[in-house]
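Cross-posted from the bioinformatics board.
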Amino acid sequence: MNDSVLVLTLAGAVITGTPIALAALGALLNERAGILNLGIEGIMLVGAVTAFLGTQATGQPLLGLVAGALAGATLASLHGFLSITMRANQIVSGLALVIFGTGVAIFLGQPVEGQALVPGARLGRTAIPLLEGLPAVGRILFQQDLVVYGSWLLVIAAAFYLTRTRTGLALRAVGESPATADAAGIRVAMVRYTHVALGGALAGLGGAYITTRGAPWDQAATTGGRGWIAIALVVFASWRPLRALAGAYLFGIALRVNFALQAADVRIVPPQFLTMLPYLLTIAVLIVLSATDTRRRLGSPAALGVPYVRDER
Amino acid sequence: MTDPDPSPSAPPALEAVGITKVFPGVVANDAVDLTLHRGEVHALLGENGAGKSTLASVLTGLYRPDGGELRRDGQPLTLRSPRDGLERGIGIVHQHFRLVQRFTVAENIALGDGRLPWRWRRSVVADAVRKLSERYHLPVDPGAVVGDLSVGEQQRIEIVKALYRGADVLLLDEPTAVLTPQEADALFATVRAMAADGKAIVFISHKLREVMAVSDRVTVMRDGAVVGSLHAANTDPAELAELMVGRQVDLSARKARGEAGRAVLSLRGVDLDAVDGRGGLHGIDLEVRAGEILGVAGVAGNGQRELAETVAGLRAPTRGSIHVHHRDVTGTGPAATRVAGIGYVPEDRLGTGLAPGLSVADNLRLTSKQPLWLDRRGATETATATITEFDVRTTGPGAAVRTMSGGNAQKVLLARELDTRDGAVTALIVAAPTRGLDVGATEFVRDLLHQRRSEGCGILLISEDLDEVQALSDRIVVLSEGRIVLERDADGVDVTELGLAMLGHDPDGPAEGGTS
Amino acid sequence: MMRGWQLEPRRDVQPGVLLVVPVLSVLAALVVGAVFLSAIGLAPVAVYREILRVSYTTGYGIADTLVAASALILTGLAAGIAFRFKLYNIGGEGQLYVGAIAAAGAALWLGEGASPALAIAVVIVAGAAGGMIWVAIPALARAYLNTSEIITSLLLNYVALSLLQYLIFGANTPWRDPNSPTFPRGAPIPAEAVFPRWATTRVHLGLVVAVVAAVLIAVVISRTRWGFHWRIFGDSPEAARYAGISSRQVIVVVLLLSGALAGLAGAGEVAGRAGRLDPNGLVLNLGYNGIIVAALARYNPLAVIPVGVLLGGILNAGPALQSLPGQNVPVAISTTLTGAILIFALAGELFVRYRPTRRPDAPPSDGDPVSVGTGDEGGRA
């Protein structure tokens, strides 16, 4: 009974939710440092195509994932340069990243447009001994791949880092009140650069995961707005890593149910309307959150989106 | 005018020799000498703009001097950043606290401490904090969230933070500006205790009374230069005042009080519910009469802003009524309240009272009802006239307010809110009108307020600076936790009584000491 | 950052700098594009010469550039009017789609036989209304619940795209051409509703609409009470509240106007360019690129016009180069170039606002409340 439709859907939801979780964790680290990075979608696209090409060239999906993460970090550093050193409007800079990233991704991916990695080069499953045998849960959680397990470790590590470590404390201070952090002897710009790059690497990894798992490269559909959902998820998660993971899995379930309905060729609702649902759901969640819970808005880092200039008059 | 150094055997803890610091168009520090000994409280006295803060920034490593040198225990010292300063045991408590509001006290104190292990433990920091707070009589709760604490408590955290980081030279920049007299007394005791423990304390202030009360030695600055360095025991306030100002300026005396007329502004039973965790107002009864200045004293965060905004029509009171003359303006909104004759000079000039990116001309018409098609020429003419009348230093009516100095921006704001040309303004709400202004601008603002008062305006002055309230007001009320807890005539008011009321003590109840 | 240098805020923006920054941005972006082109074995100079030819130096090319510009000026205004007042409507793409849907629907509903003036007026109004409807939810949520309009407006782009695909590919809707059952496409709108064209070119009425809109908006912003209120709100929402200006009203009006402009662009795409609702023709990402136009124009409505023409040529070049024989230039060259231009322009913006000077420190804060930070800017609430 371990492969019922429900179990398979939930197992699929983990796979679908993982790139969103990684991207959301990346966006979260950016925002905790006070940098709003709207470029996540562009970073994911570049990560996806880089990982595709890297895997194709080396035959090693893990190398492809590393390439995707590095590409993400590089692109994010560009946003870091614009928003930290050049004090640009972070919203516009993030959008520039989306546009530029999309262009670069299409450019690089043109030779492989519409293709998927050959099955042998894809990231395979790695079951966790003993745990994989658990009824239902084993199939859902413990017959996944290294990136899924890695994402759990990353989320836990991030939660620990933020609350328990000296550098995590410095990071939060930089996002809350850079002037205070500066006065306490913390290098604000460096903390911001580091975490923007780190966040970019995570978002790039999220994109990379999609193609290395075997999804075809298609600039319009590979990420399909998941970068934006990830950004919304950060608000939903009140800037906490574990909640971001939970939220990503919820979206994973929503998307999977959606795919299942589309695949089942349900005639009552046209597929285009099913496609709309995750976006509408996100919008609804954002609106309901701001209508009901003021404390959640207070979870936003106080200096989010504000360039820090020492002593500027 | 300089007393000789006692020339003790040990070299000074920190010494500034011929420090010069130049900014575009200003020599902020001109060959300044300063000698700090261990165990000494050294007051740095001077008006706003005299160069005290610049010197403090040089001493703590924020600015690098253009000339001169620092010596620490006799050795030359080069500081590249405040971090350098902290590492060499030089700490500062700024007038505007450097605290993360959402962090706990322990987190704020641990922030930036490289000695802690990467995986730090709150309990270790909390223990160290408790020891320091006991030693110097600085009660702080390491687990409290800073944003929930009063201004006085936050200042204590700043001091503990500096001590925790190992500062044995500690600068306090205008530390009493936001404290009640009782809190200030407690601070003085802490300062003395720190000095007795062998630390060198720099007490930066422009208030003679407290300088005389706390310091061993006084260095007076004027126009970026040291004009005297004296033993506190060998001088008196009159001598210091003359040194500090360099001419006869009488900021403290109130101008002859006019005949207070009928009430121009009255609040009856005004309640305001708390929103977003901020305090509300409870049963406020107030009356401002024509030709008087009513001062509202209180510790920051006790409902001052709420009171100002409620009177100005920006918030509708939950209960009660507000009348301007005999007109009920309760809940009519800011525009109608303004038309009824209320002017409002908010505490936050740039950003609330003025739109910083807009021109002088636009800012002067910010609050008046505009025709659908703007009268650009009229606005420019008005602005030109105002610039001349108020002696505003700017490049012209089209200049953005952001590019102007604080004093000039305040003039633009006052010019607009005090505009009585059409006789509209009958009552004024003025919040912290001289905060951060230099001596010339302060005088200008105070003269202007007195002038409007004598013309029959009723003025509601709200300020956290008790000295300012005392200096300007005819009558004083104390606001504490959203209630008026005391009302007194300004003449012969008892400062201790005011201070206790500001701390929330019932004036008719049994008197107690400070919060500590 | 740069040792020994500091940045001093400029008191007034220098017109020279305003021109130099975008020009240098374009040049720098061309260099980046050249790197990419070389990487795939193309000669950048040849490609750029082709871009000039297909977009700027031939009559046919200029006409196509102006067609693209008509839409870009409108989406640039849509983004510009919102961004200028710190309202970040990044849903221009979706608002354009819905404007196009509404415009096509209105034209088809009106049918043949109406007077051209009426038909065109109906199409224009319908387009604007469509854009306004699509921005209404983000606008109202921002105004009344303080929900950030950034993500809500953006996500609605995906919803609009699905809606558009449904109307043409999903079912037999009135928008779909009944005469082309195998290759689904939009139904042609009646001839009366088609925008008049200039001589024999494809330049249409939309260009006039765009230029008129730019001038009108410039006038409203600088000369009227409404614009005054928007400027105060955009500069400091606290100052607006203090001055008794309803922030809600400003937010709703500005965002609706922004949506209407994007919707107008959609109407132009239907009635001016394609003559039908044409999902495949909307691939130029006109809505997103409007943000680039607005940013390059520094949110100045009049500057949007020349910038729209410049960018129209670059965007136009992508598909045009594709159709050339013998060359295999990726369409993405346009997107890459425009993205790079924006990045360089953002970096250059620093030099518009600040002047680098050789002073090691900032001015003193003593006695100057302008510089007094609270130490925790966010704590001001």
